TrEMBL record:
Keywords: Cytoplasm, Transferase. It catalyses: carbamoyl phosphate + L-ornithine = L-citrulline + phosphate + H(+). Pathway: Amino-acid biosynthesis; L-arginine biosynthesis; L-arginine from L-ornithine and carbamoyl phosphate: step 1/3. Pfam families: OTCace (PF00185), OTCace_N (PF02729). Belongs to the aspartate/ornithine carbamoyltransferase superfamily. OTCase family. It is found in: Cytoplasm. The lineage of its organism: Bacteria, Bacillati, Bacillota, Bacilli, Bacillales. Residues 7-145 form the Aspartate/ornithine carbamoyltransferase carbamoyl-P binding domain. This is Ornithine carbamoyltransferase. It comes from the Bacteria. PANTHER family: ORNITHINE CARBAMOYLTRANSFERASE, MITOCHONDRIAL, ORNITHINE TRANSCARBAMYLASE, MITOCHONDRIAL. Residues 152-305 form the Aspartate/ornithine carbamoyltransferase Asp/Orn-binding domain.
Amino acid sequence: MTTKTFKHMLTLEELTPTDLDELIRLAIDVKRHPDAYGTALAGKKVALLFEKASTRTRISFEVGVVELGGYPLFLSGSDLQIGRGEPITDTIRVMSRYVDALMIRTYAHETVETLATAGSIPIINGLTDTHHPCQVLADLLTIEETFGTRQGKVLTYIGDGNNMAHSLMLGGALSGMHIRVASPDGYTVDETIYNQAVALAETTGGSVTLYGDPAEATVGAHVVYTDVFASMGQEAEAETRLAHFASFQVDETLMASARDEAIFLHCLPAHRGEEVTADVMDGPQSLVFDQAENRLHAQKALMITLLA
Ligand code: CP
Ligand code: NVA
C-alpha cells in the first residue's frame, strides 16, 4: 500500500524520504518478480517525447511500459507541431485528452514545470538541463542493492555541476547519504539547488559538501560517480571544457583513495580517456551496466506508483 504524496516526477524534491523508500522497495520487487506486474498499466498510454538524443531513457521507458501491459508512444520534438511553434501549453492540454502520462526529455527545466501546471496528467522528467531524476532513482537502487542501505553512505561526484550533480545531491540528501561534489572553478553546482539539498539533508542525517580537489573529495567514498564534461546542448564548449576539466578525470589513482569496497558509477554515455579512464570504466569496481539496467526497474516502479 503506497502513501505517495507526489503527482509528477520533476526533480526528486517533490518526494518525501518515505516516498523514495517506497519507490526503491517497489523497484526491487519489480526487478525480482517482473511477471507479477505484467498488467499493472493495462489500458494506459504513456507518451515519450524527446527533444534531445537518448539511448537508455528511450529504450528503458518504451520497454518498461510494454512490460507493464501499457502502450508507449515515442514522439520526437521535431516531428510534433511544437517544432513549428505550437505552444507547449496547448500541446499538453491536447495530450491530456489522449494519454495517461507524459515522459519528456527537454532543455529548460521550466518546460516540465509549465507542462505540470498546464496539463492534467503526470509529467515525468526524462532529463532537463538542470535535473535527471529518473537516472538517480536507478543509481539509488544500485547503491541499495550493493550496500544493503543508502543511509550514511558517501557518494563522491567528480566533474561538472550539471543535471546529474543536482539530482544526485537531491536524491542523496533524501536518502540520508553524504554527497560530495568536486568541480573545477566556474563549473560548480547551482546555488539554489545546493541550498535545497542541504536543507533536505538536515532532515535525514545526510550532508552535501562542495570541493575543489577531487582527491580530497574521494577519501573514504563508497561510490565514485562521474558524467560527461560537456552535456547535450554544450557541444560548442567541448574543447574548452576538456582543458578546464583535465585534472577531474576518474582514474585508478583516484579510485584508490576511495574505500576498498567502493563502486564506480556513470550515468552513460561515457567517454573513456576524458572523464574516466578505460581501466576504471571497464574495471572490477564499475557497476555501470547494472546501473543502466536499473533504469528499467526503477522507472517501472515510478510508473506503477504514478499511474496504477
Ligand atoms: N543516462 C541516460 O539518460 O542515457 P541516455 O541519454 O542514453 O538516455
Ligand atoms: N549530463 C548529461 C547526462 C546524459 C545522460 C547530459 O545532459 O548530456
